[in-house]
């Protein structure tokens, strides 16, 4: 992938896209194809949560599972092929003066744009268990692909009952000797096909209905206290590590006084990605929606770029 660090940025673009995940890259590709000047600003590395997913097996057209970082590379190259520019940059503020919006970056650089596409995605939620903060990075992880290898022949707890918990749990069985899914209800939210696969995996164990009350250990995790959500009984459960997959919080902190959000902090925009602020569009996991997938993020990106093009070439010209 082209190195996108420390490269020049223009003073202005037609469209600035915040976030280089599937929504941002797709928006960049569509905007560039519509002959708009466009920059995708990514805070860390492109791909977002897609890049750190081990395998993606439900993106249409990819009949075989594809590695998250491989599909990321394809998304980035596809956007660049049509002229989208991708740069590293962390937006800390947007100053909206109507026709022009100014994106302020952490390092002080300022970039003007006519339309802004927010595709900043989301970050993993935490359980709030006692000692959780102390053990994050020391036995508690939110990324099986990144940290699974540290738990070879060890026992891990995976918290959550959705697709992520069960899929990442199965991935962890490649390393761990035992993976216990701890879920607060007896029914799982995960798709039936994923539940079935998880239940057929001999290394997978299930503790329901339980929540994690406390993480135990000194320098490393040695276990968890689990509370039964029906009886309130608390038990000690031995484990060497904890992976948390209990959903996501939107990366919208800097927009709270600027754009209308849901109570959960996701941007309110319907399928057309249009927000309450003229010229600002929300695409991907940052937008309140029913299904957060790579395919729906990519779809949002395409729609947002089209809406931005209409806004610039029709609304702003009147
Ligand atoms: P999710 O579907 O929102 O599931 C979160 C799980 O965590 C739920 O089971 C929820 O329990 C539980 N939970 C939430 N807060 C909790 C808390 N404070 N303490 C304990 N448990 C808590 O999240 P996800 O699994 O990360 O998936 C996010 C989106 O990505 C979904 O749309 C999913 O379909 C998609 N995804 C798809 C795939 C795939 O298709 N292969 C893979 C990964 C993710 P309740 O059920 O009781 O609410």
TrEMBL record:
The answer to whether keyword Hydrolase applies is no
UniProt cross-references to Pfam families, sorted A to Z: Pyr_redox_2
Report which reactions are catalysed by this protein. Answer: [thioredoxin]-dithiol + NADP(+) = [thioredoxin]-disulfide + NADPH + H(+)
**Mind listing the UniProt keywords for this protein, alphabetically?**
Disulfide bond, FAD, Flavoprotein, NADP, Oxidoreductase, Redox-active center
- Details of cofactor binding: Binds 1 FAD per subunit.
Its Enzyme Commission number(s) read 1.8.1.9
MF GO annotations: thioredoxin-disulfide reductase (NADPH) activity
- Where is the FAD/NAD(P)-binding domain positioned along the sequence? 13-301
Q: Alphabetically, which GO biological process terms does the record hold?
A: removal of superoxide radicals
Q: Which cofactor does it need?
A: FAD
- List cellular component terms (GO): cytoplasm
The UniProt entry's sequence similarity note says:
Belongs to the class-II pyridine nucleotide-disulfide oxidoreductase family.
Subunit text: Homodimer.
Name-wise, this protein is Thioredoxin reductase
């Amino acid at each position: 992938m082209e190195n996108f660090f420390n490269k020049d940025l223009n003073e202005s673009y037609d469209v600035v896209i915040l976030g280089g995940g599937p929504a941002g890259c797709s928006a960049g590709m569509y905007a560039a194809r519509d002959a708009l000047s466009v920059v995708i600003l990514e805070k860390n590395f492109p791909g977002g949560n897609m890049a750190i997913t081990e395998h993606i097996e439900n993106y249409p057209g990819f009949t075989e599972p594809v590695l998250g970082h491989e599909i990321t590379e394809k998304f980035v190259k596809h956007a660049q092929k049509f002229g989208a520019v991708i740069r590293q940059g962390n937006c800390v503020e947007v100053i909206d003066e109507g026709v022009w919006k100014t994106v302020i970056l952490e390092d002080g650089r300022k970039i003007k744009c006519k339309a802004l596409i927010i595709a900043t995605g989301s970050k993993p939620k935490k359980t709030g268990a006692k000692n959780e903060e102390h053990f994050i990075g020391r036995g508690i992880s939110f990324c099986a692909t990144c940290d699974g290898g540290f738990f070879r022949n060890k026992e891990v707890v995976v918290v959550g009952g959705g697709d992520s918990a069960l899929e990442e749990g199965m991935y962890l069985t490649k390393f761990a000797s035992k993976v216990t899914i701890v879920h607060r209800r007896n029914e799982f939210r995960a798709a039936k096909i994923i539940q079935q696969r998880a239940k057929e995996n001999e290394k997978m164990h299930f503790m329901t209905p339980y929540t994690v009350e406390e993480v135990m250990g000194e320098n490393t995790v040695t276990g968890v206290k689990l509370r039964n959500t029906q009886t309130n009984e608390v038990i000690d459960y031995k484990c060497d590590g904890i992976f948390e997959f209990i959903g996501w919080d939107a990366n919208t902190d800097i927009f709270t006084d600027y754009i209308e959000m849901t109570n959960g902090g996701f941007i309110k925009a319907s399928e057309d990605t249009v927000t309450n602020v003229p010229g600002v569009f929300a695409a991907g996991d940052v937008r309140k929606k029913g299904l957060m997938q790579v395919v729906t993020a990519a779809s949002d990106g395409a729609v947002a770029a089209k809406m931005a093009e209409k806004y610039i070439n029709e609304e702003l010209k009147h």
